[in-house]
Amino acid sequence: MCSLNVGILGHVDCGKTTFTKRFAEIASTSAFDKHSDGGGRRNTLDLGFSSVMISGRRLALVDCPGHAALIRAVLAASTVFDMAILLIDARNGIQAQTAEHMLLCKIFCPEKVIVILNKVDLLEEKEVSLEQTKKSIRKSLKLMGILESSPILEMSLDDQHFCEEYMENLRKTIEMLIENFEPPRNTKDPLLIAVDHCFSIKGKGTVLTGTITQGTLKIGEEIEFANLKEVRKVKSIESWKTSRDKIEAGERAAILVTNFEAARFSRAIVAVPEYLKPMKECLCDVEPIQFFRSSLSSRTKMHISIGYETVMAECQFLRKSGISNSGEDEFEQLDKMEMPCQVWLIFEKPVFVNSDFLMASRLDQNGKGCRFAFRGFVRKILEPNGKLIRFTRKHRTGFIDRLEQNSNSAICAGMFKGETNFSIFQNMQILIAENPEISGTIEGAFGKSGKFRVNFRDGFEKLQEKWKIHLFLKKYLNDN
Ligand SMILES: Nc1nc2c(ncn2[C@@H]2O[C@H](COP(=O)(O)OP(=O)(O)OP(=O)(O)O)[C@@H](O)[C@H]2O)c(=O)[nH]1
Ligand SMILES: [Mg+2]
After folding, report:
1. 41 Cβ inside 6 Å of ligand 1
2. Measured on CA atoms in the order 198, 203, 205, 211, is the torsion positive or negative?
3. What CA–CA distances, in Å, run from 407 to 70, 76, 341, 402, 422?
4. SS3 for 360?
5. How far apart are CA 116 and CA 101, in angstroms?
């Protein structure tokens, strides 16, 4: 039975850290707001890790910060979630970050969510409002694509009202939820570690803590900090305070290396040497987040969270449309994100990932609703200034000047200037606005004034002089 990674999520101040502290048995990196000096209550500023055993299985609890400004950390952590405990302040119901966190639950663990309705002690008309709140939570769960029948437990976690029964109930609920639950773990492919913290211990070396997301790691093996192009040998491995010789996908580890300055490295993916390559551009499939309200134009810059990092990238929305003579895909360049489409991302700095999942957001758009705009999968990594064949569509109109009854053709005008080289336009399709079923092809110039002849095979008899004609062109973009 594999260990499980559990996200502790919810809007700022709803009680996540208070809950985690009551529930956890072992505290680890940054657990329980250790940073808060003076003993007073502080917002959680970073991911906190702790653990509890249930049904003989290790649950790693990832206490996430609830503050809107700290969503990057939550985005990074969520990629390893097997399940989530979502806290909601009973007085407020679903709030802005509750909704964002629910979107992450929908993506990573839609059927393994437990809702805790916390601070029920602070409700005035308890019974009435609790039932209403639960109803509206179920509605939101459904709307967000999370199992509507997910358990909702009431709690009060402050010293005055807390009782052990709450935790007993929760344990039973989790036992049921994780019975026979074996999320897939890839132990075969090369090692990847999602490192969340890096710090030095005087006289020992530098410790990296993180979750193994792929492969296995043994003492003595080498790991690479791809963005720094540096390799170190693993001196020791611990998992939840126990020394280990070997650790594998799904587990959390504290890994000791020497001769490495902790300050040089922040949250990122570490791998076996040579495995991760820099990615500066890629083509991705995208799925819009329905709750994002603004429209997105091409060339806009977005925050892209991918493989434990959030990096700015320019987004160019494209639609696959046909194949070039050399057999490559051609893409129409769209002015804005319109489904169906793909996105070409140009990162501001290279990202070292192999994970193909990404989330695009407008993290500066605080307080204006959902900040997640779309999610996607990397379809193809592109060389910088890569060769994506792109075009925009141009549209020209003209009119039928005169019909030539004997040859099923028409002399058309109003579309080209006198000096036009018609060989470029020969055989291109002309459409008729008044009757979309009729189409013709350009034969060539007629005289020198920009008039031209169009042949019509079917439907010629229905044509009328002065009808409007259309030509749709592909304008290839010259930076390829
Ligand atoms: N009355 C009451 N107070 C609570 C309860 N749960 C938590 N609190 C208090 O609410 C405040 C916030 O709790 P935290 O656990 O720090 O909240 P959080 O969700 O971790 O906050 P962030 O990490 O900053 O998002 C603290 O002062 C807690 O003591 C509860 O059930 N009842
Ligand atoms: Mg907290």
Report:
1. yes
2. negative
3. 71, 67, 42, 12, 20
4. strand
5. 14
For the chain, list the domains and their CATH numbers: 4-178 (3.40.50.300), 192-271 (2.40.30.10), 278-386 (2.40.30.10), 392-476 (2.40.10.190)
Cα gap 226→276, rounded to integer Å = 6
Which residue from 8, 11, 12, 13 has its CB within 8 A of the most atoms of ligand 1, so it is best to mutate? 13
How far is the C-alpha of 98 from the C-alpha of 28, rounded, in Å?
25
Q: Which atom of ligand 1 is nearest to the CA of 14?
A: 19
100-155 pLDDT tens trace: 999 999 999 999 999 999 999 998 876 667 888 999 999 999 999 999 999 999 99
Residues 6+ apart with CB under 8 A from 124: none
Helices (H) and strands (E) in the chain, counts: 5, 30
Instruction: Select from 226, 194, 223 the least CA-distant residue to 211.
Output: 194
The response to whether residue 97 sits with its C-beta less than 6 Å from ligand 1 reads no
d(CA 464, CA 457): 15
Place of tokens 């603004």: 294
Contact predicate 420/413, CB 8 Å: no
What is the per-residue pLDDT for 356? 80
**Mean pLDDT in the chain?**
91
CA–CA distance, 118 with 438 (Å, rounded to integer): 66
What is this structure's pTM? 0.86
Radius of gyration of the chain (CA): 30
Inter-axis angle of helices 96-108 and 126-144, to 10 degrees? 50
